[in-house]
Predict the 3D structure of the following.
Amino acid sequence: MENTPPSLETLRSILLDAGCAAVGAASAAPFESVRSNLEERKAGGMHGDMHFTFGDPARSADIRRSFPWAASLLVAGYAYLPASGSPGEDNPNHGRIARFATEDHYRPLRAALTFAVQALREAGCEAEMVVDDNRLVDRAAAVRAGLGWWGKNTMVLSPASGPWMLLGSVVTDAVLEPTKPMVRDCGTCSACLPACPTGALVEPGVLDARLCLAHLLQAPGWIPRKLRKASGDRIYGCDDCLDACPPGNKLLHIAAATPRYDLLELLALSDDDLLARFDHFYVPRRRASYLRRNLLVALGNSGNEAAAGPLVDYLGSDDPMLRVHAAWALGELGLERAGLEAAVVAEKDDDVRAEIEAALAASA
Ligand code: B12
């Protein structure tokens, strides 16, 4: 077995040939400010009860706690904005999915990183792929490896791909020559801050996940009533702070329009089919009801009267969360007052009843 690790140039070629847009290397030393940032966000409740990297900040900010042999991080960015593709027909019954999730863009990123892992292992090195994993804050690795800079929307922005880049790393014991971090920032631009529909970017570079639609649409539980309208036609994810970001926005002019998805058609799928249709989404405990909840809210915002029948059916659901969101949607649409009135009388759960009453008040 050969003992010289492949050079960064060799690894870069492997990753670029496999479709990555940007590659760099960095030391695997701990990320001190990341740990304190994670702890501060958590202490202030801004993590919105997420675990992920917030579960154990000391571990997520120091990759050597997971891989004691780690010397370097080889970091890659995969630009996922599609240059072509046909947008679905735009009508009020259609919803959208954030661009990172219209298909499984992590798959090609992981495939590319696997080639780099193989090259390192063939040279006798330790190498493990870490992508969207709780053991590493991917953006911190990317900034240190010179792939981009911290944007005020908290995204890592790259000169060529703006915020439209997924990130992943290979942790290795090979000592790779570090790439120079980018000396760049957003300057006076803060277009993303007012663009957030819920004001979740509370300061430049600071996101309160309790308000972030991308978080709420993938979190368990009820979507807070005051944020449901702002959720608009979203089914999963939110791109507003990326769309508004000039390095992101300029690329939208040359990209395909995002596909649209028929809300009623999706709602009619069985749990298994709905989960299979979006098997690359993060869905808590793989419960299809969280996707249904999002569809109900989008229908409430659709203005589509054809939603009335299916929504009334959901007033009789065994799942209190679905009764609540169906009632809200009917209230917003101003439809089926009689159905809502009957549901108030039948409802045994106090919290759900309060929501149905609010829906009746909204539809009055
Ligand atoms: C938890 C998580 C979320 C949460 C919280 C996001 C957040 N901002 O923290 C939720 C569910 C809301 C989310 C949403 C999205 N996510 Co996400 N998410 C993650 C995850 C798993 C961990 C992120 C994390 O640890 N955050 C912790 C906090 C502390 O980090 P931070 O907010 O980035 O904070 C940094 C800045 O504030 C900076 N900073 C501190 N002070 C200051 C001051 C200024 C002025 C500035 C500019 C910066 C700055 O330092 C902090 C770090 O120390 C990573 C995957 C991973 N394992 O890393 C993906 C990841 C960050 N997500 C990603 C994506 C694509 C998204 C979405 C775009 C998806 C979508 N379209 O719906 C949205 C974007 C929303 C947004 N503006 O962040 C990509 C980002 C790629 C990129 N180019 O940046 C990642 C890296 C996944 C991946 N492997 O590609 N995500």
In short: Residues 8-28+67-172 form one domain.
